[in-house]
Fold:
Amino acid sequence: MKNRRILALVVFTFLGGPLAAQTLSHDDGLGSNINTGTTSSLWLVRYATPTPGVTQVSGLSAAFGPDTSPTYPNGQALTFGLWSDPNGDGNPSDAVLLASGAGLTANVTTGAFVTFSFAAPVTVATSNFFVGYYMPAAPNSYIYFDNNNSLPNTTWLLIAPSDTVNLANNAPGNTFDLNGFSPGVGMVHAELGVTAVPEPATVLAGLGAAFLSGWTLLRRGRSRAQLCRG
Structure:
């Protein structure tokens, strides 16, 4: 019975420990330009899901550009989100919202990335997914992008969306591939919450704690047996 308890503790520690995080990106970390819109806009960047049904997205990070301008302020409200790609074509015209949150622009004068996290990591079941943000028209909606790495079917703009949950409900023709008129990739990264394999350091620490606890249980059991014999 004692051996079973120790084995269960080891397994629980091995499986229950924190797992490694990962960042997905298409850019080289240095933006080149800002694309703006005078109407409300939804900006999206597509990523291939590493392991559909297992991959979890914990949030996203975005850069808002080093350019200084009154129309690109720090503290501008936005809604960040994660969308699925139901038919797997990489086009968000049929995307469905999986998670969202409220945030503000920051680091506009530095180009440093700002991280936005969901309340809990979200498992993605589709072969692609989109991360991005919705910005209202005032004072402007914009995305910072890297035009040194131009990829079609990757960065998308949805103009004046009436529905940011089920994107298929928006007017046809309002969704554009950024590469078609401003070649480049959006400076929006996907933050993965967990991967399928724990980090080695986490495993070793967990196993050590489990065996220490198991040894303590064995010593207690022996002490009780000696007391009973005495």
In short: The radius of gyration is 24 Å. The domain at 19-194 is CATH 2.60.120 (Jelly Rolls).
